[in-house]
Amino acid sequence: MRKQNPDFPLSFFKSVQESSHFTTMWKRSCSFLPSLKHSQFTASHFSCTPVHFEPTKKICIIGSGPAGFYFAQNLFKKVPDISIDMLEKLPVPYGLVRYGVAPDHPEVKNVINTFEKVASNKNFKFHGNVTLGRDVKFSELRQAYHAVVLTYGCNEDRELGIPGENLPNVISARKFVGWYNGLPEDKDLEVDLSSETVVVLGQGNVAVDVSRILLSPIDLLKVTDITEYSLQALSQSKVKTVYLIGRRGPLQAAFTIKELREMTKLPGVQTLLQKEHFAGTENIIPNLPRARKRLSELLVTTASKEQEGSRYFRPTFLHKPVEILGSSESGVVQGVKFEINDIDHEKGIARGTGKYEVNECGLVLRSIGYKGTSVDSDIPFDSNRGVVVHENGVYSAGWIHTGPTGVILSTMSDAYDQSNRLIEDINKKTLNVTNSKPGFSAIENTLNSKSVVTVNFEGWKKIDKIEVERGAAVGKPREKIVDVAEMLRIGGS
Amino acid sequence: MALRTLCYIGRAIESTKIGLHTVQTGARSLSTSIRVLNKPEYSVTFVRPDGEKIKAKGKEGDTLLDVVVNHDLDIDGYGACEGTLTCSTCHVILKPDDFAKLPDKPSEEENDMLDLAYGLTDTSRLGCQIQLSKQLDGLEVQLPATINDARS
Ligand SMILES: Cc1cc2nc3c(=O)[nH]c(=O)nc-3n(C[C@H](O)[C@H](O)[C@H](O)COP(=O)(O)OP(=O)(O)OC[C@H]3O[C@@H](n4cnc5c(N)ncnc54)[C@H](O)[C@@H]3O)c2cc1C
Ligand code: FES
């Protein structure tokens, strides 16, 4: 889709062709052609010998999701003479773009093209399979680099804190997503899809994602990069009804309109709403801000629309979960007990009515949000908010900076803002970049002493290639490798 | 390599509009670029929040996103989803007259994404959905203050 730019004017191209001497030099100093654009050379520099100096400003970014890559992109664009090492816990890059974004939303992953451009910069190095807090210490990174940038995202769940939350078949949406997307740590998750009814607790876009995956016709999933084992499990699934349950009212729904519209168009699936939840909203909806108004209108129209299909998506409002009930013998989940809420639509305040209801189900997916944690005790961290705080020489961006809300685009804005802050600190000299720092060579010693196998970007490209080939063989865009050991065999160095 | 060379030459010709008749033979890509060459070009101006103007040209049928990509215009984060209506980073604000001149009203899907755009106005559109045409020649669009997405 995206057209490649003509990176070189014709005259320059000719000069490369004509001078074989030059070509060799060029190859030696800068092995990857497209990175020319990002390098400090311009055509006019080519009369003198292009000598490649080791950049003096050394930055380390932890985590290779969107925050890390957009941060790097902005630094390369605005700061000359800089090198960036990106450390990533997994052997492979891109964080939640690979392991969060739903497999049936491949367009969202187009951002990877931008990340690949960043990775092609000759002063960028990716080091996969390196975990901060385990393989390398925060204090070591502080010693080795002028600045450390934490973009390691949020890797835990928020919990409801109600009885029964740990019963078998009560699963966090985060793990369920990790399971269908092939996150190595979740590949062996036991998901029992033998019950007809599933309750999803929470109403954000992640909750809608997991509902859609459970209800989608299998033929729609077959052509995505969903993992083979989950495709198998889903093809034998008995699930017919998914409840998407939240405490608040329809005018406070947390999902966005695009996600809801997609559900209303899902073949074979009816989106059923309780009309009584909309009583008293008629006069309020027309005066809501545009986005909220359009979303509410779509809910109202859907509530009274004739639909067809033998599977059901049931967004249910004003239900506050109070207990998850299990069978007394097997312990397996049997239902969720809710307190019914009442709502003042105008003020948006929900209150308990003291009335209770039990919703039977055989699987509960808890989707009330992610949680950020400190991965090394020396990281300046606000444990109440679950976010990294700024200190001299330490920056952060993305979910571990803002908290786990927002989409790739809000993450992008934050990464630009925070990298601008670093740049400002260099310019104002509040960040010292004049002293010499060892950079990755210091870290490498530690990693070697612990026999950590790392994966560089070329290693990832080898894994990528094999995944795409395996996918092509079965009519999928890729078949993800889910075993870390196998990834390391292919891409390790 | 030969193919790659040809490809570069083809692109160079496309962008510089020279020496068409000297390269006649071979590659299909060349004949495509010749056809592309015949399409009329129109100009478009992007105005940054601080008032700075970025002028560029595009061919008939190119979207504003195509123009940004083809000229590598320096607009942070523009077009993150590459025109698949899943972001809203290509948001632009039109003058009311130009807005009215557009042949198509925004689709439901475009409106769904516009809902999430930062700094939405009554004359906002997504640049990946606007195609250059004779009527729109000289179009001037405003870029919103921050490229952002309010889905959080
Ligand atoms: C299920 C789900 C679906 C989503 N779908 C969409 C969507 O469709 N569209 C959209 O725009 N947004 C979507 N989002 C939001 C989007 O994924 C986030 O906004 C974005 O990924 C946040 O980026 P990040 O870089 O802060 O974190 P992440 O993407 O989480 O990246 C963090 C990286 O750090 C690594 N890491 C963690 N700990 C360590 C450590 N100790 N050492 C080294 N590395 C470490 C992780 O492995 C990971 O690669 C979705 C989110 C989720 C959870
Ligand atoms: S480029 Fe993403 S919506 Fe236009």
From TrEMBL, chain A:
Q: Where, if anywhere, are coiled coils annotated? A: none
Question: What terms describe the molecular function in GO for this protein?
Answer: oxidoreductase activity
Q: Which cellular compartments is it found in?
A: Mitochondrion
- Top EC class for this record: oxidoreductase
* Protein name as annotated: NADPH:adrenodoxin oxidoreductase, mitochondrial
Reactions this protein catalyses: 2 reduced [adrenodoxin] + NADP(+) + H(+) = 2 oxidized [adrenodoxin] + NADPH
Q: Where does NADP(+) bind?
A: Q203, G204, N205, V206, R247, R248, E259, G406
Cross-referenced PANTHER family: GLUTAMATE SYNTHASE 1 [NADH], CHLOROPLASTIC-LIKE (PTHR48467:SF1)
Pathway listed: Steroid metabolism; cholesterol metabolism
Check the record and name the SUPFAM superfamilies matching this protein. Nucleotide-binding domain (SSF51971)
Q: Which residues cross the membrane?
A: none
For the ligand (FAD), the binding residues are A67, E88, L96, L132, W399, G406, V407, I408
> What EC number(s) is this enzyme filed under?
1.18.1.6
Task: Show which residues constitute the signal peptide.
Answer: none
Task: Could you list this entry's UniProt keywords, alphabetically sorted.
Answer: Electron transport, FAD, Flavoprotein, Mitochondrion, NADP, Oxidoreductase, Transit peptide, Transport
Q: Which cofactor does it need?
A: FAD
Organism superkingdom: Eukaryota
UniProtKB/TrEMBL annotation, chain B:
Molecular function via GO: 2 iron, 2 sulfur cluster binding; electron transfer activity; metal ion binding
Q: Which InterPro entries match?
A: 2Fe-2S_ferredoxin-like_sf (IPR036010), 2Fe-2S_ferredoxin-type (IPR001041), Adrenodoxin-like (IPR001055), Adrenodoxin_Fe-S_BS (IPR018298), Beta-grasp_dom_sf (IPR012675)
Any idea which UniProt keywords this protein has? Answer: 2Fe-2S, Electron transport, Iron, Iron-sulfur, Lipid metabolism, Metal-binding, Mitochondrion, Steroid metabolism, Steroidogenesis, Transport
Q: What domain of life is recorded for the organism?
A: Eukaryota
Gene Ontology biological process terms, A to Z: P450-containing electron transport chain; positive regulation of ecdysteroid biosynthetic process; steroid biosynthetic process
Q: Where is the 2Fe-2S ferredoxin-type domain?
A: 42-147
Localisation: Mitochondrion
The cofactor(s) it depends on are:
[2Fe-2S] cluster
Q: TM segments?
A: none
Q: Could you confirm whether the keyword Phosphoprotein appears in this record?
A: no
State the GO CC annotations. mitochondrion
Q: Which family does it belong to?
A: Belongs to the adrenodoxin/putidaredoxin family.
Q: What's its job? A: Required for ecdysteroidogenesis in the prothoracic gland which is necessary for larval to pupal transition.
What is the name listed in the Swiss-Prot or TrEMBL entry for this protein?
2Fe-2S ferredoxin-type domain-containing protein
Organism per entry: Apolygus lucorum (Small green plant bug)
Q: What is the lineage of its organism?
A: Eukaryota, Metazoa, Ecdysozoa, Arthropoda, Hexapoda
